[in-house]
Design brief:
The complex is a heterodimer of chains A (260) and B (235). Chain A is mainly α. Chain A has ten helices and no strands. Chain B is of the alpha/beta class and 235 residues long. Chain B is built from eight helices and ten strands. Chain B has helices at 40-48, 90-101, 108-113, 129-141, 159-174, 186-192, 210-217, 222-234, and strands spanning 2-11, 14-24, 28-33, 55-60, 63-64, 75-78, 147-151, 178-182, 195-200, 203-208. In chain B, helix 7 packs across helix 8 (222-234). The longest helix of chain B is centred in the C-terminal third of the chain and has 16 residues, at 159-174. Classes of the chains: A mainly alpha (260), B alpha/beta (235). Chain A binds chain B through residues 3-4, 7, 11, 14-15, 69-72, 74-83, 257, 259-260, and chain B through 11, 45, 48-52, 69-73, 75, 77, 79, 81-85, 87-88, 96-97, 99-101, 139.
């Protein structure tokens, strides 16, 4: 598995897109710091960008990588290598190289700006950790979609739909639901509903840590009231880990049963 | 070497293999023939464990193929379509496959044979189809495994490379290896095959030497013998 991981990782590190992605974050980080002149504010702006962009890139890259390396995967399948290690290795290769682009791209400008002397360092680290989580989650979802769909166009379509649903539609539905049933107690419902969307979960996780009650929103407030900041952070990280684990396990399961 | 017992495979509604029984003994060249969609590649992929049969058992070198992967170290496989990571150079790919198999491979002789030296530092994405197929052949023959499986090995090769390939196949056979080939190029098949297996509608229609096939179909040459089978099956 580690050999496959290593090669997928190298392959991606040499592809132009990894650099484009890296430069995008580098530019974003520099511009935000330059315009904001304030680390904490920059972190908040970054959060809003990250929780939308990272899942999108993870999904697209994951699906694209899977389909592009299909024939090569077949070559690997004929080698004396376990099936699951091929797919898990490729998945981790993609997810880790994307996470690295993110962490380096954003990290460098902040480090040069003087992150280590500021007290925003923990907020910022949490932001990067969340970004890495989102990359892992959405790349895994993308690999699942690609494994179930032989047809490239369909696979891409579903991947975009999943992203669109979790990033945009889900919140809309959620809000409509809250409005419609406003006369009922909705605390538990909204807690559970948040758990089912990794993007919402990440947003709340960061805002809890930043302790900006104005931005928390209803669910965030419920979260804080219910669990307090520390337990809330712990709980959302656990939920995110489950979100990583389940799709990854399914890659393992599905790849064992699939015909190539 | 390979025992195939009552293999059934269905893709959705499409029954590709329906009860294949086949035994391939040690040493010699076996060619799997059949019209398009007769299940040649599926059968080969079943042997490699890439396609999981619905029913039946395959045993390679006394090891059951099901849920096993280590037996593949006895097999060199040439896939039908070669597509490699476009960012890697030929040299890196060779190194990588050696590393993945955990075996030293002998590539220098093959590089010379297929005249790949000028391409070693080129990116795989920039190679022509024929050159990719040569790299594909190189990767296959690099390891000295006792079983070699070639799926359409001639596709895209120029006449010289084809000649070299035939020499290579004969040399490998002389070493006592078992070679399984699928091909549509009948002149190539006639030249190399010791035994042929003809698949039709997911079943073994014929197994034996070319001579026996000619006798069975009462035709003088191989091409007409194959055509006779196909015409009957098309009606």
């Amino acid at each position: 598995m580690f050999k496959i991981l290593k090669y997928s990782f190298y392959d991606l590190m040499r592809s132009r897109w990894s650099y484009v992605y890296f430069l995008f974050y580098l530019l974003l980080g520099v511009v935000l710091l330059f315009l904001n002149n304030d680390l904490s504010k920059a972190v908040i702006t970054l959060m809003n960008v990250i929780i939308i962009i990272v899942p999108l890139i993870g999904t697209i890259f994951g699906v694209m990588y899977y389909y592009n390396s299909k024939e090569f995967t077949e070559l690997l399948l004929a080698q004396p290598i376990k099936r699951s290690s091929i797919f898990i290795g490729q998945y981790l290769g993609v997810a880790l190289s994307l996470s690295m682009s993110l962490i380096l791209g954003l990290g460098l400008p902040f480090v040069f700006y003087g992150l280590f002397e500021s007290n925003a360092i923990w907020d910022f680290s949490l932001l990067l950790v969340t970004g890495a989580f989102l990359t892992l989650i959405f790349t895994a979802l993308a690999f699942n979609i690609a494994l179930y769909n032989e047809n490239k166009i369909k696979g891409f379509g579903y991947a975009i739909l999943v992203w669109l649903f979790l990033a945009v539609v889900y919140d809309g539905l959620f809000l409509m639901f809250l409005m419609y049933f406003e006369s009922y107690p909705l605390d538990k419902f909204s807690l559970v509903a948040t758990m089912f969307n990794p993007i919402d979960l990440s947003r709340i996780l960061i805002l809890l840590k930043l302790d900006i009650s104005a931005l928390l929103g209803y669910t965030g407030a419920v979260f804080q009231k219910f669990f307090g900041t520390n337990l809330g952070v712990l709980l959302s990280i656990t939920a995110l880990s489950v979100w990583v684990f389940i799709p990854t396990f399914n890659i393992y399961r599905k790849s064992k049963k699939k015909d190539f | 070497m390979i025992e195939i017992k009552n293999i059934h495979k269905r893709f959705g509604k499409n029954q590709v293999l329906s009860g294949i029984d086949l035994s391939i003994s040690d040493g010699g060249i076996f060619v799997v023939l059949g019209p398009n969609g007769s299940g040649k590649t599926t059968l080969i992929k079943c042997i490699l464990g890439m396609v999981l049969p619905n029913k039946g058992e395959i045993v390679v070198k006394d090891i059951s193929v099901k849920n096993n992967w280590a037996y593949r170290q006895h097999i060199d496989y040439l896939p039908q379509i070669a597509n490699f990571p476009s960012n890697l150079s030929v040299k890196e790919l060779i190194k990588m496959i050696k590393d993945l198999r955990g075996k030293p491979g002998d590539d220098t002789g093959l590089i010379e044979r297929f005249q790949l030296a000028p391409f070693l530092d080129k990116k795989l994405g920039n190679l022509s189809g024929g050159t990719k197929q040569k790299v594909n052949l190189l990767l296959t023959f690099m390891f000295n495994s006792p079983l070699i499986i070639l799926d359409e090995p001639t596709s895209g090769l120029d006449p010289i490379a084809l000649l070299r390939l035939k020499e290579l196949i004969k040399e490998e056979k002389a070493k006592g290896k078992t070679i399984v080939i699928t091909s549509h190029i009948l002149s190539f098949v006639e030249e190399v095959a010791d035994e042929i297996v003809f698949l039709l509608d997911g079943k073994v229609y014929f197994k034996g030497s070319i001579e026996a096939l000619k006798e069975k179909t009462k035709q003088d040459d191989f091409e007409h013998a194959i055509a006779t089978i196909l015409i009957h099956s098309y009606v």
